[in-house]
Task: structure prediction
Amino acid sequence: MQEALRLISPGAEPVRADFVEQARRLRHGSDGASRGLALTIRGLRKSFGDNEVLRGIDLHIPAGQFVAIVGRSGCGKSTLLRLIAGLETITAGTIGFSEETRPEDVRVMFQEPRLLPWARVLSNVEVGLGHERHLPDAQARAESALVEVGLDEKRGQWPAVLSGGQKQRVALARALVSQPRVLAFDEPLGALDALTRISMQRLLERVWHDQGFTAILVTHDVSEAVALADRVLVIEEGGIAHDIEVDIPRPRRRGSAQLAALEGSILKNLLQGTEDTSDL
Amino acid sequence: MSLIDSLPRVGAPKLPRVDGLIPWIVPLTIILIWQVACVTGFVSARVLPAPSDVALAGWKLLLSGELARNIWVSFWRASVGFLIGGSIGFSFGLANGLSQTSSKLTDTTLQMVRNIPHLALIPLVILWFGIDESAKLFLVALGVFFPIYLNTLHGIRTVDPQLIEMGRIYGMSDGELFRRVIFPGALPSIFVGLRFALGIMWLTLIVAETIAASSGLGYMAMQAREFMLIDVVVLSILIYALLGKLADSASRALERLTLSWHPAFQKH
Ligand SMILES: Nc1ncnc2c1ncn2[C@@H]1O[C@H](COP(=O)(O)OP(=O)(O)OP(=O)(O)O)[C@@H](O)[C@H]1O
Ligand SMILES: [Mg+2]
Result:
């Protein structure tokens, strides 16, 4: 299956079945501590005018955890993510990180790659360095981030000539280049085709393992959530309705019975509030 | 450049040298037919002189130095008027695109003034400035102002807000945000304004020089009309066309240079 994938999409990231094990050994072999930041949210509320979107969120995310957030469209997933990233103002409550953060420590990746069309791939990645982009090693760091996502040979291209998946990988390199300690993803793979999605999911899992940041992934794809995350949060009516531990060892085999069973139960939770489920 | 033409064609191999000549086929054919029609007497020389006669008239004026002087005067008026009107329009476009306050203060007024055709001001301008240089510069500057203003403003207002948010997330300062995100994003629209403005610049100048001038190409044409020198009249018209084409080519070249990232300008 993996060989077949590689044959079908030759541009896709080469699949490395053993990387997860390697990464785990590397991380836990050395000191075991994660570079990520822990995150604590207390009594978080957010309203837009009269519309109260989040009504009291309490949440602790340990350092280095991979958390997926699912929920129906419009339930406030993006709002929660934007609050964590500091892109919206908090109505009430607190969001605290375990250590003092620099702006470069928290990065967001969106569904749209948001690349500057008038900048070459490499300088788009350099943008991600934030205040450090004027340091002499900026270019070298941007290059190694591109290598990390397997797009080194595209460094001199305009974004317009890249495929959707390649653009998203450049956006990932831009988010990674400052070595963030929290990385928030808002449906980063939502616009990609099925094959590209799978190879991007593997890429996300690999960089998360290699770099040890805390990952928060908003997705509408429950199978993606259970394949990648340590923990799945279901948001309903402005609060966390379910908090599900995904206790399945990595590397996870896509399509395995264990994953499918978990996915089924989460989907059932999601659909509980829906009155009309006959068409689903 | 249209999008469809710039798409790579399947099968047909490109012949660059022939490709460059294609735009000249139609004008050359027209000149040839024109020449033949005049020589055979199909068209009377009192209606339209033959291209060879026009060329001869041009040669004579060139030798006397009159042609170069008039072209220079017109060129000077066009470019100075353009620079004045263009830079004021650009500044207002930037200010109103970037600042709410500035936009509230001036945009409504400017939109009202825009509805007056600037050539309608000619009688007033002659009363104010006479047939002085400043009259022509004023009219050209006024004509050029609006396309540049409107397109700069539009360009800045339509920069993708998601890109601006991205710039802010990645810690760009206001200056950097302008230089790296807003200005490049507005540039395609600014170029549209530039090309419109160049067209208006020549139009205004022709009218102004024909009505109120004592030098320049338009004046040369009006003088020739008084003496029934129809070849010189046609010559002035052709030179206007040539200068207009030249200005357009220059702006296209600049566009190609600065917008090389744009899919429509990418070489295949
Ligand atoms: N800037 C805003 N101003 C006003 N209302 C907003 C704003 N942003 C979000 N909302 C409202 O907040 C609610 C939640 O929006 P949000 O984008 O967080 O949903 P979501 O869970 O991400 O949905 P989707 O899965 O469709 O992306 C919606 O009702 C939306 O209309
Ligand atoms: Mg959303």
In short: The interface with chain A takes residues 162-163, 165-167, 169-172, 180-181, 184-185, 187, 259-263, 266 of chain B (CB under 8 Å). The domain at 50-260 of chain B is CATH 1.10.3720.10 (MetI-like fold). DSSP finds eleven helices and no strands in chain B. Residues 81 and 138 of chain B are 7 Å apart (CA to CA).
